[in-house]
Specification:
By secondary structure, the protein is mostly helical. Helix content is about 65%, strand content about 5%. It has 24 helices and six strands. The strands form three sheets. A two-stranded antiparallel ribbon has the order 1-2. Strands 3-4 form a two-stranded antiparallel sheet. A two-stranded antiparallel ribbon has the order 5-6. Helix 10 packs across helix 17. The longest helix is centred in the middle third of the chain and has 39 residues. The radius of gyration is 24 Å and the shape is globular.
Amino acid sequence: MSEAVDTRTAEPATGAGRTYNRWTRNSTLEDYSLRYAPRSFRKWTPYVVATTALGGIAYLADFAIGGSIAITHGFASAVTAILIAAVVIFLTGIPISYYSAKYAIDMDLLTRGAGFGYLGSTLTSLIYASFTFIFFALEGSIMAQAFELGLHIPLPLGYLIASLVIIPLVVFGMTALSKLQVWTQPIWLVLMFAPFVSIAFVAPEKYSEWTSFAGNSTTGSSISLLGVGLGAGVALSLIAQIGEQVDYLRFMPDKTAANGKRWWAAVLTAGPGWVVLGAFKQLGGAFLAFYVADSVGLVKAGEPIEQYLAGFKTFMPPWLALTIATFFVILSQVKINVTNAYSGSLSWSNFFSRLLHKHPGRVVWIFLNVGISLALMEFGVFGFLNTVLGFYSNVAIAWIGAVTADLVINKPLKLSPSFIEFKRAHLYNFNPVGFGSMVVASVVSILAFFDVFGSTAQAFSPFIALVLAFVLSPIVAVATRGKYYIAREDEQDEPLFVDGRLSGVTAECRVCVDTFERPDIVSCPFHSGPVCSLCCSLEAACHDACKKGPVDLGMPAVS
């Protein structure tokens, strides 16, 4: 599984100079992992795309996170922390979802054009890849717990099974995942809500008793400032989930007068709207942790399999409850971990294509992502859930904060281009607006996380990251006059937009001799003709000869 030998020298090519292996050339497997998703491939309706994206949030780590926060900080602090984090995640997710769906690009390509630059977004690709394998490991651990309780499979073997079962499901990308998520969504929703409805009938007093749940909190069930900050920090680790949502939203059809309302409903529901259900699940996990704490102890109360086993027992015999709980957990974890593996493969593809100028195909990186996740499971990452997620949230929220600031502040104020440019030929390698803001915000918030600035700053370190990234982005954009967004003007005769929509006109790449739509093509002086964005990315011999230095935003923008 390696790219065919490239026989070109440093001289400009005059014909086909690169061929890709069979997996890479198969759009069903590859899913345009490093590219703009062309109009011809985006054949799904807004409903199917939204359902597929929402199917990925079936994960039960939300229940584990909510339970862990409640056990650690008590009822009031947990509920407040979860709701605050949900509001932040929802608001930051709106512009990211819109721009991704409009320009048909994934999170990495969006980040490139939203203030980070071509190589600057390499770091965010690694951050995003970390998100996918951390949560794959957490979700896989939850599945293994179900294997152990329901099927008596030892945890180490369960971790291996939970990893291997995902690979064949995710290889075929959006084509297979859309069917999996649509078909399984109704039964999953019924099973998820069933215990809460049953408890409301058979033991309604439990909901009022929950408000007195203190867990291990030294301040009891009452609200604590530090508890809210620390709890919100754990919940905010999920802010990078928007990346997985837009990995699907990039397949939205173009917005038209006919589908406008359905298009917006799908983007808002499947984009930032994921956190509405996510927050409910975290609150549900906090409640079920309280519900089972007396019978299984606080240590196991945060495990979703124990939570749902107790919930199902309220309306079915124990043997059937165990069977249904095991099935529900496995189904949930399969639905999310195909998304974690899929998004991870996209992120690793973007990361290594820029470092190595090689692209063996998205499928290859599935194995890397799953392998790292399996190692984390075997090392017991679930036991350090709060610490791992609390630390990760500092970096993730600095990244998302910087991207959001560019989209909602810099672009409306004309501090950055009005469009999203993702192609190497037109981007400066590093843009200090987003990249610099993220680095500064991350360093300061991580120092706060390690108690350099005191306990209060430690508890609210993710919010320090968010505010710093959000404020620094426009300041740096003004200071640099936006010079580091566009390294070279678009010189093609065919406009990027036609009647407000991305052009569907096609051209043949002079390097790989495949045909691509206008948004995925650049004019290449090295090859004396049009080149696709992937061949441009993988070209190591040109040394960015097409770029003549930063371009001031005083020039006319593409429209």
